[in-house]
Each structure stands twice: as C-alpha cells, then as structure tokens.
Write a structure and sequence with these properties.
alpha/beta; 36% helix; binds zinc ion
C-alpha cells in the first residue's frame, strides 16, 4: 500500500486578503469582490478530501514552519527581512505591486514553505512514499530578491535546497501551473543539479519570461526547460507536450527526487489563463509524474499546491492530483459531462506544430549537462 502524506493547516483555508476585484484594489469604478487568491478554494478542497473519503488513504500531518535559514538558502537576507517588516506593518506588497500582504502573511508564507519541507522530509526519511503539500501563499514567482505574482517565498526552491543539503544529488522540479515558474527558474538557472521544467501558457505571466530559448546558464546548459503552450490548449495538447518534452527530459536527467509545482490554473474554468485542462487531464498528468518518479526516484515525489483560481473547479482538479498520488479510488468530476467532446479537448494542428518545434529547439536527446 502506498503511504501518502497530506500536509494541511486550517490556517491555509482562512488566510484572507479581503475585498478586491480579482486583483484590482477596491477603488474607482470596479466594485469590490473577493481577491482572487482567496481562502475559499483551499477550504473547499479540504472538505472535498473528507467528503469523498480520500482522507482514509492519506496521512494528514500538520506542517512545521520554515526557518529563516532555510529561506536564506534561496533568498537574500534582505528579502526575508523585508517580508517580515511588511507583514509587521499590517499591510503592504511583496513585490510587483499586486501581491498584497497583511499581518498574517509572513507567518503563512513560513508555514507554506514549511509545508513543502515537511513533505520532503517525510519522503526522504521513508515515513511516506509520496506527499502533497497544501500551502498559502504560493511561491514559484518569488525570486532570490523579491516576491511577485501573489508569491512571497519560493516554497519549492527552499524544499529543493533542503533536499540537496540532505544529500539528494539530482532533483527535478516540474511546474504545471499555467504561469511561468520564473522565480524557480532564476534561482536554479546556473545549478546543473536541479532540472527546472515549466509548462505554461505562452507569453502570459510574466510576459517577458518563459521562452523556449532559456535552457540554463553557464555550466547548467539543458537544466532548464520551458514549454510555452498555445492559448486554448486542452487535455490532448497538454499531454502531447508532456509526452514529447517533459517525460524525455526527466528520463534523460534521471532525478533522485521529483518535486511538482501543482498549480491547476490551466483548468478550463480558470479566470487567470486560457488553457483548458479538465480534472481528468490533470489526473493523466499526475499519472505520468508518478510513473517518472517510479522509474528514477524510487517513487519519491512531492506535489506542492500553487495557483488555481476557479472557486468551483480548482478543488476538483487538485483532488484528482491527490487521488492519483494516493493510488486511491477516483471520484467523479461533476463537470465532465459538460466538457466531454468539446473542441478544446482535442489536439489542434497548430498546437501540435508548436510542440514539434519545441522538441527540435530543446534538442532533447543531445544530453542534459549536469
Ligand atoms: Zn499560476
């Protein structure tokens, strides 16, 4: 039986950024509404885990907080101090002007990074075969010097650094969030021991990063792989890219530990991307990741939760990822009958061409230096 850890704190389902309108502050003509990074989505996921019986297949543990030292492995001391000071002041921005923080945010950011660290520790110690870290705040846009895009600290990067310090020599980070994992890419760009892969909507967020030409810095050529996807890409297009690019890159790199940035904002109903995956598509993505971990990592894989902004659908997509990880019975996607057979579920010729071109440009098969 697979032993799967779920790291969860009630506080993740409570951290409330107040009334904005998506991410526009409550001023001017736009009527206030929930900030898009609101607690509803996470709280609903937790209730779904209980209601579907998935909880019976999980070891639910409370996360520890990350230490300042663990964060400083991937961030400057100045950034960590500034985040503490902004939170201490009761309100402010983590970076970029649309990443609000309140008095709880610093502590929640420590707990979110700690949630991934807790999961990595349990997998490395053998207490768990696989693990899933729920967290809020997200992390993959945070770079060494600043927060960005709702992210304060780079949770997955801190966990990768801790795993390296614990003796893991080769780590792969696969980022399936719809937005480019720019912070993670930047932190490890010149590190040949950490393969960073990001699948994301082409030129969406951040606008200026995520291109296929970014393959790693000096001494780490091939250790970064961007997969910019055409708007409108659904299950078939996504899985085509996954099989042509991500799986071969993982097989070539042969990581000892697999970390997955589990954003589900590439879903059909998400307001922050025009990708169009279904919950079933996310399950197939998770199956490929678990299989890669079985081939290369003795099964050791940790998913850490990031973006996903449809209050209604994101919880069902995250649920699928956890069901696959836990090798648990699959629940029904109540939206599946409305999505089955729709045009976006097929591989369009222009999507296929784009991926075929990326395969050539990535030079997969030429060897990843490490
Ligand atoms: Zn995202």
């Amino acid at each position: 039986m697979t032993r799967t850890t779920l790291s969860w704190s009630e506080r993740f389902g409570q951290h409330d950024m107040g009334d904005w309108a998506i991410y526009v502050p409550p001023t001017g003509l736009v009527e206030p509404d929930l900030h898009i990074d609101n607690p509803k989505r996470t709280a609903r996921l937790r209730r779904l885990i209980a209601r579907t019986g998935l909880e019976d297949h999980l070891d639910v543990v409370a996360p520890r907080a990350a230490t300042v030292g663990e964060l400083e492995a991937v961030h400057s001391a100045e950034h960590v101090e500034r985040m503490a000071a902004v939170s201490e002041a009761g309100w402010g921005d983590a970076g970029g002007g649309f990443t609000p923080m309140n008095g709880d945010s610093y502590e929640l950011a420590l707990l979110s990074a700690g949630s991934v660290l807790t999961c990595v520790e349990r997998v490395l110690s053998g207490e768990a075969d696989r693990a899933y870290a729920i967290g809020r705040r997200s992390g993959h846009h945070a770079s060494r010097e600043t927060g960005y895009g709702f992210c304060i600290f780079n949770n997955v990067a801190a966990a990768a650094a801790a795993a390296r310090a614990a003796g893991v020599e080769r780590i792969a980070i696969v980022d399936v969030d719809a937005h480019h994992g720019n912070g993670t890419e930047a932190i490890f760009y010149e590190d040949p021991a950490v393969l960073t892969i990001s699948l994301h909507e082409d030129r969406m967020f951040p606008l200026e990063t995520g291109g296929a030409e970014a393959r790693g810095g000096a001494g780490a050529e091939g250790a970064n792989l961007n997969v910019p996807l055409a708007p409108g890409t659904g299950d078939a297009g996504y899985l085509y890219a996954f099989d042509r690019l991500v799986v071969p890159a993982l097989d070539e790199f042969e990581p000892e530990l697999l970390l997955v940035v589990a954003g589900v904002d590439a879903s059909m109903y998400d307001p922050l991307s025009t990708l169009a995956l279904t919950a079933g598509g996310f399950a197939e993505v998770a199956e490929r990741l678990v299989a890669a971990a079985q081939r290369h990592c003795d099964g050791r894989v940790v998913f850490e939760q990031e973006g996903g902004y449809s209050h209604v659908y994101a919880p069902f997509c995250w649920l699928k990822l956890i069901e696959v990880l836990a090798a648990a019975p699959r629940s029904e996607d109540p939206f599946a009958p409305f999505l089955a057979g729709a045009g976006f579920t097929f591989l369009a010729p222009h999507q296929q061409e784009l991926v075929d071109d990326l395969v050539v440009r990535a030079g997969l098969g030429a060897g990843v230096s490490s």
